[in-house]
């Protein structure tokens, strides 16, 4: 299994392959290789799709994002959170055919390690192998383990721990399972025994687990008395002098400052993996996802579902022959064209003429009934067949749009293209229902992608700028009435664009009108466009004779004309013209025709005519 | 006055937004300055010293018949108000002054301020060697000696104000009764 490099979209999300569906998103996820934290991959979003498991770091996402193909995953184990340790999912790769013996030892998991403690006889077969794998060239010295005196979990000795130079002041990482710092002696003994076992593997491998286990209890006691005098923590409330490994005061229960759980779970206790950039790195043992903000259960569930469904197998499958091909080739709008393709073809009676058409219609309706009926049987099934249902809803909408004669062809075009967009749209269901901020940020990314998608070109069509309300309407219509975004969520999501460094920006005009525009769009560009237009008006003679010197003044423009020319909406055009007026580029004329704008001849012409008037 | 040639309007006069008060302060300032200079030139052209806004709003000054645009009384008053203020107050350098009787409908338009007129008078007196001589105000305004001068046919009130400036400066002395004023230049 390899960490694969990952392409990101403009909204800094994984670029999905064709047919790939986003299943779940979780933020505040850290990545582990084996038992080691991977630097720079400790705070990011985990995206579960139907084909891949993607990790995108919150900081510098273009650099630190990797993906793992689901087809290479053998199994997934869930590990609940324990004291200070976050809940984790351990993902084991499928054994590679070429080196089966190696990978079997590589799957030495925490569970196996724990077993070896409980049953030392079993570990006999494991330890030599592990040591064999950890030859001196190996960059990962995971050969030594120490056993936590509190929870008896076997932890790796940190890679930078050198028994020769370490002393009691050396900073030791706490236990991976319970998060409590080990007594120095425990780690030291484990390290020494590991070194000894490397020198004489067969001899000491039998002894080392036993020694570690035997010395556990006395050591813990000894360290209690020893460290009590040195690294004690006085309680801030009752001043009782507590043992340093205690999180709460023994007497009054007040949280101790040293042990108080910090909100920043990035500083998780595990040692660091040595490489900081892991794209195209082989996963030797297993990887772990640490869910520091929860969401592990749903993630696990969805991941298991995706592993069972094996959507990636469909990628190369030939398309199912569609019985509706005849109907659609006749040019008739087939309401089931996209739905039937996924269903098994029914035995087809060759109908001729009107009777045939009617029968075909009947068949189509029956199939639709079946799809709808299946989908509504229970919610799980609805989610599974969501794509079919959406496609069905869409074709129905398109049909009704045809009959009711949609006013704007452009909006209906956008609507009809929206099926493609739906694959990527984040719904509340994909996220942990508890985390509102994640939903908002994902919605913001959705919106950014929706806006910058060149296939739809929504911003371009609107002249690079559109009002938030228009966008909201368009966006919700493209969702076909499923998982609509509420106006307040929508606005909050739009406000996040700047923070998430997405390529679109929300902007507030003086009047309070909120508009959406590309991040590189600014007033200067608008003014340039308006000025070019005004100069053009000075060159082109107006249609009707005008009482003023058009070559000098040009012509008046209204917001409607500007909207038409720049393909803005009228509200946006009015705001942009007023912005230009504020900048002194335009000036206004109020008359019975309404408000019109001119090139600002009043202040731009200088004093040429004044000096002439002074005689 | 009827024989004066038509007034050459500046190009801005035919610019439709010129007749709409501009909301942008910079543009508004430029607009007021242009109006001020237009009013001054207009009055100078027509040798007018006082401007009655009631009459003026119907005149070509404030009413562009070609564009069918006009400055209404309220706006015209705003322009003249601006002209009455000094530049320090953000106005037009006291180029106008409301004539105090009644509401703000008639104003002096100072296309030359009384101080400037006083300078013109002194220059003329010195230039023609009339220093120390005595002239009546009537002679100054309507006399043949000052026929070619700009102050020929000047409003008597403006002339008296200009002469008073000279008196304050100690360059002239006014004597005589109402309507019979004489002036001696030093």
TrEMBL record, chain A:
> Has keyword Zinc?
yes
One GO cellular component term: ESCRT II complex
Q: What is its main location?
A: cytoplasm
A biological process (GO) annotation for this entry?
A: protein transport to vacuole involved in ubiquitin-dependent protein catabolic process via the multivesicular body sorting pathway
Instruction: Write out the entry's keywords from A to Z.
Output: Coiled coil, Cytoplasm, Endosome, Metal-binding, Protein transport, Transport, Zinc, Zinc-finger
UniProt-annotated location(s) = Cytoplasm; Endosome
Record region (Disordered): 89-110, 317-352
Q: What superkingdom does the record give?
A: Eukaryota
Give residue ranges for domain GLUE N-terminal. Answer: 6-319
Record's keyword annotation contains Zinc-finger: yes
MF (Gene Ontology): phosphatidylinositol-3-phosphate binding; ubiquitin binding; zinc ion binding
Cross-referenced InterPro entries: GLUE_dom, PH-like_dom_sf, Snf8/Vps36, Vps36, Vps36-NZF-N, WH-like_DNA-bd_sf, WH_DNA-bd_sf, Znf_RanBP2
Q: Family, per the entry? A: Belongs to the VPS36 family.
What job does the chain carry out? Component of the ESCRT-II complex (endosomal sorting complex required for transport II), which is required for multivesicular body (MVB) formation and sorting of endosomal cargo proteins into MVBs.
Q: How does it assemble?
A: Component of the endosomal sorting complex required for transport II (ESCRT-II).
Mind telling me what this protein is named? Answer: Vacuolar protein-sorting-associated protein 36
TrEMBL record, chain B:
A Pfam family in this protein?
Answer: ESCRT-II
Which biological process, per GO, is one annotated for this protein?
Answer: protein transport to vacuole involved in ubiquitin-dependent protein catabolic process via the multivesicular body sorting pathway
**Major subcellular site:** cytoplasm
* Single GO MF annotation: structural molecule activity
| Keywords noted in UniProt | Cytoplasm, Protein transport, Transport
Which cellular component, as a GO term, is one annotated location?
A: ESCRT II complex
| Gene3D superfamilies to which the protein is assigned, alphabetical | Winged helix' DNA-binding domain. Chain C. Domain 1, Winged helix-like DNA-binding domain superfamily/Winged helix DNA-binding domain
The subcellular localization recorded is: Cytoplasm
Q: Which family does it belong to?
A: Belongs to the VPS25 family.
What this protein is called in its record is Vacuolar protein-sorting-associated protein 25
Source species: Penicillium rubens (strain ATCC 28089 / DSM 1075 / NRRL 1951 / Wisconsin 54-1255) (Penicillium chrysogenum)
């Amino acid at each position: 299994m390899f960490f694969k490099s990952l392409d990101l979209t403009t909204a800094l999300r994984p670029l999905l392959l064709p047919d790939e569906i986003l299943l779940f998103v979780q933020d505040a996820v850290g990545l582990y290789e084996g038992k080691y934290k991977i630097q720079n991959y400790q705070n990011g979003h985990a995206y579960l799709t139907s084909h891949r498991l993607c990790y995108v770091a919150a900081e510098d996402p273009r650099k630190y994002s990797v993906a793992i193909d689901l087809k290479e995953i053998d199994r997934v184990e869930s590990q609940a959170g324990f004291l200070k340790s976050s809940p984790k999912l351990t993902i084991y790769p499928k054994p590679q055919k070429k080196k089966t013996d190696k990978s079997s030892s590589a799957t030495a998991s925490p569970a196996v390690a724990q077993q070896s403690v409980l049953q030392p006889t079993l570990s006999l077969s494991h330890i030599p192998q592990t040591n064999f794998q950890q030859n001196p060239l190996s960059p990962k010295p995971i050969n030594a383990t120490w056993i936590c005196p509190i929870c008896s979990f076997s932890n790796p000795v940190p890679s930078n721990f050198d028994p020769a130079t370490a002393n009691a002041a050396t900073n030791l990482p706490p236990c991976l399972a319970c998060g409590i710092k080990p007594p120095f002696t425990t780690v030291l003994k484990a390290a020494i025994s590991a070194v000894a076992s490397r020198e004489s593997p067969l001899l000491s491998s039998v002894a080392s687990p036993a020694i570690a286990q035997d010395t556990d209890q006395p050591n813990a006691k000894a360290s209690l008395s020893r460290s009590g005098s040195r690294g004690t923590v006085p309680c801030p409330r009752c001043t009782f002098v507590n043992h340093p490994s205690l999180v709460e005061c023994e007497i009054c229960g007040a949280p101790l400052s040293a042990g108080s759980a910090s909100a920043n779970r990035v500083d998780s206790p595990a040692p660091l993996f040595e490489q900081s950039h892991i794209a195209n790195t082989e996963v030797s043992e297993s990887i772990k996802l640490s869910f520091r903000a929860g969401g592990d259960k749903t993630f696990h569930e969805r991941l298991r579902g995706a592993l069972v469904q094996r959507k990636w197998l469909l990628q190369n499958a030939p398309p199912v022959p569609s019985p509706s091909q005849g109907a659609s080739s006749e040019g008739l709008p087939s309401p089931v064209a996209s739905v039937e393709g996924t269903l098994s073809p029914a035995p087809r009676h060759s109908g001729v003429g009107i009777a045939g058409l009617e029968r075909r219609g009947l068949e189509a309706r029956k199939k639709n009934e079946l799809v709808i009926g299946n989908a509504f049987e229970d919610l799980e099934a609805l989610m599974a067949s969501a794509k079919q249902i959406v496609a069905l809803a869409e074709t129905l909408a398109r049909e009704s749009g045809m009959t009711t004669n949609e006013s704007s062809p452009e909006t209906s075009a956008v609507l009809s293209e929206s099926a493609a967009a739906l694959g990527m749209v984040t719904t509340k269901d994909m996220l942990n229902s508890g985390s509102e901020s994640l939903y908002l940020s994902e919605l913001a990314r959705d919106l950014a992608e929706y806006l910058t998608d060149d296939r739809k070109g929504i911003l371009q069509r609107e002249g690079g700028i559109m009002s938030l309300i228009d966008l909201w309407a368009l966006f919700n219509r493209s969702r076909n009435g499923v998982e609509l975004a509420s106006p307040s969520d929508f606005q909050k999501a739009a406000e996040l664009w700047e923070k998430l460094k997405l390529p679109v920006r929300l902007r507030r005009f003086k009047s309070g009108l909120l508009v959406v525009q590309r991040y590189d769009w600014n007033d200067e560009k608008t003014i340039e466009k308006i000025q070019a237009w005004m100069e053009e008006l000075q060159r082109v003679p107006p249609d009707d004779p005008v009482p003023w010197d058009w070559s000098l003044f040009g012509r008046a423009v209204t917001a409607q004309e500007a909207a038409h020319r720049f393909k803005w909406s009228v509200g946006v055009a009015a705001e942009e013209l007023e912005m230009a007026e504020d900048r002194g580029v335009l000036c206004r004329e109020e008359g019975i025709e309404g408000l019109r704008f001119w090139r600002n001849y009043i202040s731009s012409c200088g004093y040429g005519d004044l000096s002439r008037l002074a005689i | 006055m009827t024989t004066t040639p038509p007034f050459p309007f500046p190009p801005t006069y035919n610019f439709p937004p010129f007749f709409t008060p501009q909301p942008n302060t910079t543009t508004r300032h430029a607009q007021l300055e242009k109006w001020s200079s237009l009013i001054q030139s207009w009055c100078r052209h027509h040798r007018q010293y006082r401007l009655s806004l009631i009459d003026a709003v119907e005149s070509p000054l404030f009413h562009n018949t070609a564009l069918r645009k006009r400055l209404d009384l309220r706006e015209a008053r705003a322009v003249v108000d601006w002209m009455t203020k000094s530049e320090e107050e953000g106005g037009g350098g006291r180029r106008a002054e409301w004539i105090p009787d009644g509401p703000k409908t008639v104003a002096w338009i100072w296309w030359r301020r009384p101080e400037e007129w006083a300078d013109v008078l002194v220059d003329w007196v010195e230039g023609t060697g009339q220093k120390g001589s005595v002239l009546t105000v009537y002679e100054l305004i309507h006399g043949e000696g000052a026929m070619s001068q700009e102050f020929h046919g000047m409003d008597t009130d403006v002339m008296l104000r200009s002469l008073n400036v000279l008196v304050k400066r100690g360059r002239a002395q006014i004597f005589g009764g109402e309507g019979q004023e004489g002036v001696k230049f030093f």
